[in-house]
């Protein structure tokens, strides 16, 4: 279980003072749950994801993972505890081949074969024959990098995986494939998923939806209760539009 307690994050403002990006967020993400985080652009969603992974450190508050306070832990320490993160804009690794990256993600003890690495690529809609030996460098498009990164997250198979707008830069066919990937991940494992997204189809397969705007949690609810309000732009959810 992931608990965010009184979480705040500030950055220096232009001129003087500070600007609050995350404002006193209190949120509990339950085990074995698919949570979609949505809300207007600039509302703090991506920053919250980076705080969970340790890419950014909160100004105040605490992040607790399965009863352990991880607020001051590094990215590596959190990864070792079983938290994965997929960037909105994936990192390139010149000199590293796709199959080596997948093997690193899976862990040396798993001894992932080339055939298994190819299976992970196929899950995200990439022809393994065309990609398995390519370098993870500038020759790959943003959409290709995104799908390779998601393949590495699948290979890691950690208790918690956080995806920051996985649909960004993805074509329609690949996006349809990713929906199936996320559904399968949720249905066939006991891991937890957190996906930041504006896409109705991703919100529609989540168990729970969290709406964040202006750095604060505006509402939390079950998909069946909250999604109709979001789509219809009712008074309680008008900030989503």
Overview of the molecule:
By secondary structure, the protein is of the alpha/beta class. It has a single domain, classed as 3-Layer(aba) Sandwich (Rossmann fold), CATH 3.40.50.300. Helices cover 35% and strands 29% of the residues. The chain has nine helices and twelve strands. It has a six-stranded mixed sheet with strand order 6-9-10-3-11-12, with helices on both faces. A four-stranded antiparallel sheet has the order 2-1-4-5, covered by helices on one side. Strands 7-8 form a two-stranded antiparallel sheet. Strand 9, helix 7 (172-188) and strand 10 form a beta-alpha-beta unit. Helix 4 (114-123) packs across helix 6 (142-156). The protein is globular. The two termini are 30 Å apart.
Q: Kindly name the structural category.
A: alpha/beta
CATH class category:
Alpha Beta
Mean pLDDT: 87
Strand order of the largest sheet: 6-9-10-3-11-12
Please, what is the CATH homologous superfamily? P-loop containing nucleotide triphosphate hydrolases
Strand content: 25-35%
Give, in order, the helices and strands.
Answer: EEEHEEHEEHHHEHEHEHEEH
Which fold name corresponds to the CATH topology? Rossmann fold
- Would you count the extended β strands for me? 12
CATH architecture: 3-Layer(aba) Sandwich
Approximate helicity band = 25-40%
Count of runs of 4 or more consecutive helical residues: 9
Characterize the main sheet. Answer: 6 strands, mixed
Shape label: globular
Termini gap? 30 Å
Number of domains: 1
Low-confidence stretches: 235-241
Evaluate the radius of gyration: 18 Å
